[in-house]
Specification:
Structural class: mainly alpha
CATH topology of the largest domain: Tetracycline Repressor, domain 2
Number of helices: 10
Order of helices and strands: HHHHHHHHHH
Radius of gyration: 21 Å
Number of strands: 0
Largest sheet: none
Length: about 180
């Protein structure tokens, strides 16, 4: 709190007029970030709404790379988070999901989105370096011992497969699976 106050040019004690402690500040920061995510519409094409929600959440989390770990590690009951969850559950329930399945569905989607974002933000290579890295490490994955990994690496080296992470691929798997469960109790 002292460092925050110093960066704001105020006394640390004056911050306590607005927040009781560091956790209040962090909760407020998380709620501001969540407030930037597009809310899914209720009624209409639920899958399109969930795609837009996922794309928006991913974009917001990439703009705020510190936010995903903070979001998943806190019990957030700020107004933006409450609106976000309510709209998500509402979209799914109105599409024919039970409340229990809607809860499981949005949690599965969010787990995927947060995990994908963290992997993307922390991956040690830039996409343009994949082929060179595969070439550099190919000797560590001999064809006789690791035939499938070697073959995949060779495709990256030959630029026949880019190896890029793709949010949409996993999201479609989740949405297809949820569609099969929709309407079931």
């Amino acid at each position: 709190m002292r460092k925050l106050a110093q960066s704001l040019g105020v006394e640390a004690m004056s911050l306590y007029n607005h927040d009781t402690d560091k956790d209040d500040v962090l909760d407020g920061m998380v709620d501001i970030v969540v407030g930037e995510i597009d809310l899914p519409g209720i009624g209409g094409d639920w899958q399109a709404a969930m795609r837009q929600r996922a794309s928006s959440a991913y974009g917001v989390l990439v703009r705020h790379p510190w936010a995903a770990p903070l979001i998943v590690s806190r019990m957030n009951v700020g107004t933006a988070m409450l609106h976000y969850i309510n709209a998500t559950v509402g979209c799914l329930v109105e599409a024919g999901f039970t409340y229990a399945l809607a809860d499981r569905a949005w949690n599965a989607m969010d787990s995927y989105i947060y995990g994908f974002t963290l992997q993307k933000l922390n991956f040690p290579l830039e996409p343009e370096d994949y082929a060179d890295a595969a070439r550099h490490f190919l000797h560590l994955i001999p064809k006789g011992e690791y035939p499938y990994m070697n073959a995949l690496s060779q495709l990256v080296i030959d630029r026949k497969h880019h190896g890029l992470h793709d949010l949409g691929f996993g999201l479609e798997l989740i949405l297809d699976g949820l569609e099969r469960l929709r309407g079931q109790g």
